[in-house]
Amino acid sequence: MTGSESSPHHLHYEEQANVAVITYDRPDCRNAMNNQTYRELVAAVERANSSEAVGAIVLTHNGPVFCSGIDLKAQPEEKDPVTGIRPTVATMGMANDTSWVHLMKRSKPTVAALNGAAIGLGATHVLAVDIRIGSPTASFSFPFLTRGSMPEFGFSALLPQIVGFGAAIEMCLTSAKLDAPASFVKGLLTRLTDADDALPEAIALASEIGKHSLLQVSLTRQLIYDNAGESDWNTIMTREREAFIQLFRANRAERLAREAAAGD
After folding, report:
1. What is the rounded distance in angstroms from the CA atom of residue 175 to the CA atom of residue 243?
2. How many Cβ atoms sit within 10 Å of the Cβ of residue 91?
3. Domain membership flag for residue 220
4. Of 60, 76, 154, 160, residue with least CA distance to 116
5. What domain range includes position 26?
6. pLDDT in tens, 164-196
7. Whole-prediction pTM value?
8. Residue 73 shares a structural domain with residue 132
9. Phi, psi of 25 (to 5 degrees)
10. FRET partner for 58 with CA separation of 20 to 30 A, picked from 66, 113, 175, 207?
C-alpha cells in the first residue's frame, strides 16, 4: 500500500485462493475516503491486476458503513508544483484516462460486498463495480444537493444506465436513500442475500468467475461495455467477430505451445 510509514493503512489487501479481497478499514471515520484511502485503493486494485494468482477482485468493508463518502475533515495537500492542481480524491478519481471508472473497466472482474450504507462517493464509486451483492443492512444514499455538491466519478452516466433516466433524475434531485430491497429492485444491488454478511457469497462468486480464462472474461466484459450504448448493429457484430477471432487465435497458440512442449 502507499502512504507514509507513520500513517496507518486505510484498507487491507488479502489473496484468498484466486480472489483478491480489498477491505476498507476506517470504521471510526465510517470508511470515509481521503487522498490516502484512494491511493491505497488504486494500488490494491493494481496489485490484484498484476497478480497471476488472482482471477477476480472483491471490495468490502469493516464496520457498519461501506463508505460514507469524501472525508471532509481531511487536511488538504499542497498543490502540484508542475500542474498547479491540488490533489484531491476528485481530481485523481476523475482524471482523463486514469479515472476510477477507467481503472474498473480495465481491471479484472470486480464484486462488491455491502453490509452497510454507501453514501455520496461511497455510492458513486461502487456503481463502477461489475457485481454488487448486499446484505439486508446495505443501502444507497445520494445526498448531493443537500450537501451542496453534485454527482461524481462517472455517476451521471452510470446511474441512468443502471436504473433508467427518469429514476436517476428523481434519485439525484430528491437526495434519495434506498434500503437494501429497494436498491435491489432498482439494480443498484445486483444480488440481495439473506445472510448477515454478503462477503462469503461475494468471494464464492468471484472465485467461480476467476476460474475462467482471463482473456475470455476480459473480452466479454469489454464487449458489454462497448456495445451497451451502441446503436449501430454492424459495429456491434464487428466487435463481436473481432473478439472471437482474438480468443480463437489465443487458444490456438496456447494449444500449439502445449503440443510443442509435450513433443520435447
Report:
1. 41
2. 13
3. yes
4. 60
5. 11-210
6. 999 999 999 999 999 999 999 999 999 999 999
7. 0.90
8. yes
9. -140, 60
10. 175
